[in-house]
Design goal:
By secondary structure, the protein is α+β, with helices and mostly antiparallel strands. The protein is built from 15 helices and 20 strands. The strands form 5 sheets. Strands 8-12-13-20-19-18-17-16 form an 8-stranded mixed β-sheet, with helices on both faces.
């Protein structure tokens, strides 16, 4: 066990003293709360004499003791507000223990308290609660990191120090990060607003939100390595889903015209500031539509998300001002590669593609087929340069085992990806609904797997059986919620938009 710090030891002594005074540091009773700090700041008007009977609860974040009266600051989920605590107000009788011992000596910053009182404005114009009742709700045994400020004598500028800014600490201890870094809370509020805006948009169109299995007997719907687990009762291997596509398509076969799911998916692959092994995407499938129609939907939906979060279509992301206003730029994949490399690869075979990749200094390995080589060239020389939202369309058939063959261009499929700020944010197809073609594509994937491609798809006989019952023409979409959240909140890393990102095991204390 890690030795306690001096502060932690002192707080445990205070815990014992509180109990010795007959005060339970972790009471069980319901806590009355009738307003939030934000409601009071937004709506208090001295001339109306409103908010004369308020009850709040939250963390004690600062205390300034001045004899028989003190000022303090309480923080709840909506913000902070000043408290005025007078000894004789909270201790109207002879016993002043609550103020003299508990408030002044035994409470610490970070403790949860409940207060009742009325609101007034101080002489310096600060909205404040005049406390008439105060109760300890939960004793904090660890001190919060406290951001300190001082004036640099040489420059006269304010210097902030002891801030809780180390990324690893912040991600491991998100509960502390949320308390001491208010901007973090705003990021996650915006993420929730983003999801709600998408859900409202899809519901307004009459599409059905559904749930599909996370534990699957076969993984499919994407090119990725799965996480594997074992079901003891059935004595069978199961996989955490890498996508929910094949199940949602089964629902289209079953007669639904439009279904969507906000899904947790899992891919056993590398980690970076753009990748977490557990991530969220929204997948949508709509019968009787195609990928051109789906591009229009994506433009409209993401534009609405930007307006819902920012009140405008322009979003600052790092040094880039990104505009989600429709229409977005569109290139075919081969057009984009030629535009940014000067090389036309559309008619190249695998040998020529390998030679081109070498000239462009793109690293390959022997297991890669044509589709992987093209994807590597695109990822190295095109994707990072697409800052404004851009649709890349019409991919080689080898790259897209679940997409319908192009109606006009042999060797291509009807697929698009939306790229923004140098990264893919969504992927969509005119969905393949020919069961014979689909079986051949799965078999081609099996051959890639034999060559060593660990992300090749497996053959799903039940999904093929479903297609054999008939699936109408369908447009499908997968949009990465984490990536889109990064852009919409100007976050540098995917870990900044996940409450609890995956981390290596903690070492030491």
């Amino acid at each position: 066990m890690v030795p306690l710090s001096e502060q932690e030891t002192l707080r445990r002594h205070k815990l014992d003293e509180l109990r010795a005074l007959g005060i339970e540091p972790y009471p069980s009773e319901l806590v009355e709360v009738n307003f939030s700090t934000q409601e009071i700041h937004d709506n208090y008007h001295p001339e109306l004499n409103n908010f004369q009977d308020v009850a709040l609860a939250g963390r004690l974040m600062s205390v300034r003791v001045m004899g028989k009266a003190s000022f303090a600051e309480l923080m709840d989920s909506s913000g902070r507000i000043q408290l005025y605590v007078n000894r004789d107000e909270i201790c109207p009788g002879e016993d002043k223990t609550l103020y003299n011992n508990v408030f002044k000596k035994l409470l610490d910053l970070g403790d949860f308290i409940g207060v009742k009182g009325h609101v007034f404005i101080t002489q310096v114009g600060e909205t404040t609660i005049h406390v008439t009742e105060l109760k300890l709700l939960a004793k904090a045994l660890r001190p919060l990191p406290v951001v300190k400020e001082k004036i640099d004598e040489a420059t006269g500028e304010k210097v902030v120090y002891d801030a809780f800014t180390d990324p690893e600490q912040r991600y491991r201890q998100r509960y502390v990060d949320l308390v001491v870094n208010p901007q973090v809370r705003d990021t996650f509020l915006k993420r929730t607003q983003l999801v709600q805006a998408m859900r409202n948009y899809l519901n307004d169109k009459g599409y059905l939100e559904v749930e599909t299995p996370i534990l699957q007997p076969l993984y499919g719907g994407a090119a990725a390595r799965p996480f594997t687990t074992h079901h003891n009762t059935l004595d069978m291997t199961l996989y955490l889903r890498i996508a929910n596509e094949l199940y949602l398509k089964r629902l289209i076969v079953g007669g639904f015209d439009g279904v969507y799911e906000f899904s947790k998916d899992f891919r056993n692959e590398g980690m970076s500031r753009f990748h977490n092994p557990e991530f969220t995407q929204m997948e949508l499938y709509v019968a009787y539509k195609d990928y051109h129609w789906m591009m229009d939907l994506v433009e409209e939906m993401v534009e609405r998300v930007a307006l819902a979060l920012h009140g405008k279509t322009e979003v600052q992301v790092g040094e880039n001002l990104i505009n989600f206003q429709r229409p977005w730029q569109r290139y075919t994949m081969f057009e984009a590669i030629e535009k940014f490399t000067g090389v036309a690869i559309g008619k190249m075979d695998e040998v020529a593609l390998r030679e081109t990749a070498a000239k462009l200094k793109v690293g390959l390995d022997p297991s890669m087929g044509k589709s992987k080589i093209i994807d590597e060239i695109f990822g190295e020389h095109v994707e990072p340069k697409l800052i404004q939202p851009t649709f890349i369309t019409d991919y080689p058939v080898e790259m897209s085992p679940l997409a319908k063959k192009h109606r006009d261009q042999p060797g291509l499929v009807e697929r698009f990806e939306a790229i923004c700020n140098g990264k893919e944010i969504c992927n969509a197809f005119s969905e393949l609904n020919d069961p014979i073609d689909q079986r051949q594509r799965f078999e081609d994937q099996l051959e890639l797997g034999k060559r060593g491609d660990t992300e090749a798809m497996v053959l799903d006989e039940d999904f093929l059986r479903a297609l054999e019952y008939g699936m109408p023409p369908t447009a499908g979409l997968g949009i990465g919620i984490d990536r889109l959240s990064m852009i919409m909140t100007n976050s540098h890393s995917i870990q900044d938009v996940l409450f609890f990102p995956q981390m290596r095991p903690e070492t030491g204390g």
